Amino acid sequence: MSTPPRSRAQRRHDTEHRLAHDIDVWVASASPDGVPHLVPLSFDWDGETLLAATRADSPTGRNLAATRTARLALGHTRDTAMIEGHVEVLALDALPPYLGDRFAARTGFDPRSLTTPYRWFRITPHRIQAWREENELAGRELMRDGRWLA
After folding, report:
1. Which of 29, 42, 53, 86: disulfide with 63, CB 3.0–4.6 Å?
2. What is the dihedral of CA 67, 64, 20, 83, to 10 degrees?
3. Is this structure's pTM higher than 0.85?
4. How far apart (Å, rounded) are the C-alpha atoms in residues 122 and 49?
5. What's the whole-number average pLDDT of the chain?
């Protein structure tokens, strides 16, 4: 027996809580010729964008830099938030130090301390969906065109 569906406002609240408290997100990207790639990355949420870092020469780093788009998944299969976003690619030294410090404190990972070439990837959501089970598929869209619907 499933629980009653949450309101759109409750789903937004739950999604924002997850963005503020989770540390890792699944990042799906594709190469320009359509080869998919999926990895977990640590992230920081500032209330408007997610900041992640990965090696510049990794499949994810190359894909995000080439296509400037990503699909992210928070949670597990019975409590999912799907985020589609535009990607901004930044050199490690292009980010203000306090944002890099915030990322490192939150995630326990500081790419600035590595000798391998990393980049920052700032992802601005333009669509967010959230649902738990089939009874929440209706009304699952929480953000469209970068604007919250609830």
Report:
1. 29
2. 40
3. yes
4. 6
5. 96
Q: Where are the domains of the chain?
A: 8-140
Written out in words, the top-level CATH class of the domain with range 8-140 is: mainly beta
Q: Which position has the token pair 């990895």?
A: 39
Q: Is the pLDDT of residue 105 over 60?
A: yes
Number of H helices, E strands in the chain: 3, 8
CB 102 within 8 A of CB 128: no
pLDDT at 68 over 60: yes
Query: Do 50 and 103 contact (CB within 8 A), yes or no?
Result: no
The confidence score (pLDDT) of residue 1 equals 53
Of 114, 136, 140, nearest in space to 128 by CA: 140
Give the DSSP H/E element, type plus range, for residue 85.
Answer: strand 79-91
* Structure confidence at residue 38 (pLDDT): 98
| Tokens describing residue 38 | 């999926």
- Helical residues (DSSP H) of the chain, grouped into ranges: 8-21, 59-67, 97-107
- Residue 61 banded pLDDT, cuts 50, 70, 90: very high
